[in-house]
Amino acid sequence: MAGESWTEIRVLVPSERIDDAGAIANMTVPYGIYIEDYSDLEQQALEIAHIDLIDEDLLKKDRSRAVIHIYISPEENPAEAVSFLKERLEAEGVAYSLELAACANEDWQNNWKKYFRPAKVGEKLLIRPVWIDDYDAEGRRVLNLEPGLAFGSGTHETTRLVMETLEPLVTEETEVLDVGCGSGILSVAALLLGAKRAVGVDIDKLAVKAARENGERNGFAEPLYTVFEGNLTDRVSGRYSLITANIVADAIIMLTPAIPAFLEPGGRYIVSGIIDTREDDVARCLAENGFTVFERREKNGWICLCCGITR
Fold first, then answer.
1. Model confidence pLDDT, tens digit, residues 113-127
2. Domain architecture of the chain: domains with CATH
3. Phi first, then psi: what are they for 120, rounded to 5°?
4. What gap in Å lies between CA 244 and CA 257, rounded to an integer?
């Protein structure tokens, strides 16, 4: 893991929340993390090393906080990983502080671009980073993307699961609402697949800016593609045949009671960003609000559910 192209993210959390934070961190990268947790040092020393004499420097370690070290490879987007960690930790109510090591801000925000290559998603799309000119679309529709600091480059399982789920559902009559749209990748993908219209909404103004710019890069602007900054119920009106929410379990649970007012009869609601340990909570909320799950996809501990109203 040596070399300037790797980024180390250090996440400091209360020791009593290390299991929750560690589970989120493990979802960020596929190759493991390193955790420093000295809250139970003496007991661990006895059980693991079978010793009761502990180095004085270790005894001076902070017992109240644990540190998670996450190493982001050149093939990943560190900015997206940071955004992902912040969103998930806040949604789970874990207090944290986050530090970046080894690279200056401008480096970790841009170095990953050298390794983000065009990627096939589903049967019809190719995600093309805007800085790559040498590529073969192989007949696929090209989604020109600059994610910036917004979540949604198409590299994370949660985003790809939604794109794969929505692809066969989109027709020329489909009107899409993307809640928590991030970079706009899902709504732009739906338009490329032939959707009639798409609306994105996000509380993050940087995400709204990125989504609008990505729409324009792909030839979609108002009224075909509209992006609002703010909350769902404050800014959005009308009904949609396809609603996507690639966010977090708690946000999905909070938003779902409002979704039926925006969903056309027979429409589909696709939710993703669900850690497998929260699937039952989300499924319970969906059922309580009249939804039936018609399709379930899973990859590396992440769940995507496609559902509709049945009452």
1. 665 678 888 899 988
2. 7-111 (3.30.70.120), 150-309 (3.40.50.150)
3. -80, 135
4. 14
